[in-house]
TrEMBL record:
Keywords: Menaquinone biosynthesis, Methyltransferase, S-adenosyl-L-methionine, Transferase. This is Demethylmenaquinone methyltransferase. It is an enzyme of class 2 (transferase). It holds the Pfam family Ubie_methyltran. The gene is menG. Gene3D superfamilies: Vaccinia Virus protein VP39. S-adenosyl-L-methionine binds at residues 63, 81, 103-104, 120. Signal peptide: none annotated. It comes from the Bacteria. GO terms for molecular function: methyltransferase activity.
């Protein structure tokens, strides 16, 4: 069990943590987000703008709730997660979806395969998030879309004060009552607190080669929705590949 979000995460331990909470994960998230989780999911799907016939990769897909929402557009969705327990629960709930077990920092796909790649609330759980962003760049087709939905930092001091109070007092109590594994949610809360802000994540995304990088805040900055494109111009892509070879730091 992982109890500290030290940003040098051991994938096997984090995966095991998610195995433990797979069955009740979506229900607990809806409660802990005070009902905002479905709204964040709707905003993410709109940002992806999936179209029939497209192939879309949903990373850290968990039980497939977000993947199923994307698939309603008629797009073909591949749901990837590193937790066998999450995948098993996802296959039970969504038997028509394609689930793949894999590491986001070493995606089991070829270059230029997907029209869009998305990850929701999973990037901060990856041991090397910058490497994962580089892999997302690699598997996207030229011109392909990246959408990252992740917890961030409220921009309003009053909102930050209320959010800090909820994280320190309200969320632990609710997690204890609603979750089968409160320790897992303690880890998640710590990972949120230590995660960089909107501008730092945008810099990471730009640093691995993406263009048209932008973000907008949801719920006052509690969550940030990041969007970007893989450049179409081969010269720009070659420059990005050279930048990715020594791993970016920030």
């Amino acid at each position: 069990m992982v109890n500290k979000a030290d940003m040098e995460k051991k994938p096997d331990e984090v995966s095991g943590m998610f195995d433990d909470v797979a069955r009740g994960y979506d229900r607990t998230n809806d409660i802990l987000s005070l009902g905002n989780a479905p709204l964040w999911r709707i905003a993410t799907v709109r940002a992806i703008a999936p179209e029939p016939g497209e192939r879309i990769l949903d990373i850290a897909a968990g039980t497939g709730t977000s993947s199923a929402s994307i698939a309603r557009s008629g797009a073909t969705v591949v749901a990837l997660d590193f937790s066998p327990g999450m995948i098993a629960e996802g296959r039970r709930r969504h038997p028509k979806l394609e689930f793949v077990e894999g590491d986001a920092a070493r995606l089991p796909f070829g270059d230029d395969e997907f029209d869009a790649v998305t990850i929701s609330f999973g990037l901060r759980n990856i041991a090397d998030p910058i490497a994962a962003l580089g892999e997302m760049y690699r598997v996207l087709k030229p011109g392909g879309r990246l959408v990252v939905c992740e917890f961030s930092h409220p921009t309003n001091p009053l909102m930050q004060f209320g959010y800090d109070g909820w994280m320190k007092l309200g969320m632990p109590l609710v997690a204890k009552l609603a979750s089968s594994n409160p320790d897992a949610y303690r880890y998640l809360m710590e990972s949120i607190e230590r995660w960089p802000d909107q501008h730092a994540l945008a810099k990471w995304i730009r640093g691995v080669g993406f263009s048209r990088v932008a973000h907008r805040n949801l719920t006052g900055g509690v969550v940030a929705l990041h969007r970007a494109r893989k450049p179409v111009d081969p010269a720009v892509r070659a420059s990005a590949a050279r930048r990715r070879s020594p791993r970016a730091t920030d």
